[in-house]
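Hey,
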Amino acid sequence: MIRILLWHVHGSWTTAFVQGRHTYLVPVVPDRGPDGRGRARTWDWPDSVHEVTPAELRDAEVDVVVLQRPEDERLATEWLGRRPGRDVPAVWLEHNAPQGRINDLRHPAADRSDLTVVHVTHTNQLFWDCGATPTRVIEHGVIDPGPRYTGEIPHAAVVVNEPERRSRVVGTDLLGPLSEAVPIDLFGMGTADLARRRGFGGAEDLPQDALHTELARRRVYLHPIRWTSLGLSLVEAMHLAMPVVALATTEAPDAVPPEAGLVTNRLDAMTAALRELVHDPDAARQAGAHARKVALDRFGLDRFLSDWDRLLDEVTA
């Protein structure tokens, strides 16, 4: 059993990660801000996840640090009194697809021999310039929510956080044109104002289990995001047995098979596919069944945890 220090940065990803056989130390600060959110409030985490204060970390036994942001390395050095990668083993988990000019996509952990950068998609590994730093791809895994799909509501579901701030990155500008084809229900943090102004349905910031239930009631899952590693909500929708209509960007063309719906950069084709799936429940259900099979085979929790166990054993040996 390994004692792992990591920050609560990405709730859905961390929920899968902490299902393993290890002990997980999660920093907590008084305001539960970005430096220490502590345990999740809207996800179900096991008892092996322990909140630790900065003062407690000074004497804590830590076998490996999972860094996810540049500030994590600074905080770990300050709070542990040990430098990740030098005084304590470390890996850098990169959730995000890089932003900027292709020739300028240098990773903050580039050219380091004291840690490994772990990418969540092959697209990320391709685009990030990590120099001589060893890299590994460990694709997403999720806890199977079960095949909840009913498709009883003939709408398209979209999950995105902060759609107005992130704007074109997450395809907010595409929602209006696509909603002319089928009604859209919008879910995620910071969606309420946009949904109210645009006349979208949905709900903001539901607990994960309730979100899964509500998504599965919609006829089709719409993924309009231009640039992302691979949205965990997309993987979860596939587990729910939802058919998918997605932009053919980043990892989506490799993750979503043709039988599961449509992946394309043609908005006219997306519009036609949305209409077809919404108006043909049998075709939607068949496509969703294909989506679920692929999700279970490729993004299952057992595979995800096994991949991480192999890497953690390597870096702590």
